[in-house]
Amino acid sequence: MSLDYSNLEQIKCALFASFEKEDWDSVEALDSQLTTEVENLVNRAAFAGQNERDALQSMLRDIQSEYQRMLIEAKDKQSELGRQLKQLNNEHKAASRYIDSAKYR
């Protein structure tokens, strides 16, 4: 029994492209689809030959490493957004102090 990886490959490519575009709704939906497809392939792999199982295992390692990369990038983006939010908050406080001081002139 030969496993068909085309659907897995399409979902994987769409997921990573959506991540790069920061289309978080698509990332969430595609992540769910990818998980379902992986589960289906793993179940079918039980009836496949060793070469097919090895190929699937290799693909899953590639996907896992791509998820690790996405996680690192997401944490970096989170840190950058946190820094920007802190800067905006400081600027807002400074503007508020200026406005308050101008009231007493």
From TrEMBL:
Coiled coil, from the record: 53-91
Keyword Coiled coil: yes
Top-level lineage group: Bacteria
Keywords tagged on the record: Coiled coil
Name this polypeptide is given: Flagellar protein FliT
Organism: Oleiphilus messinensis
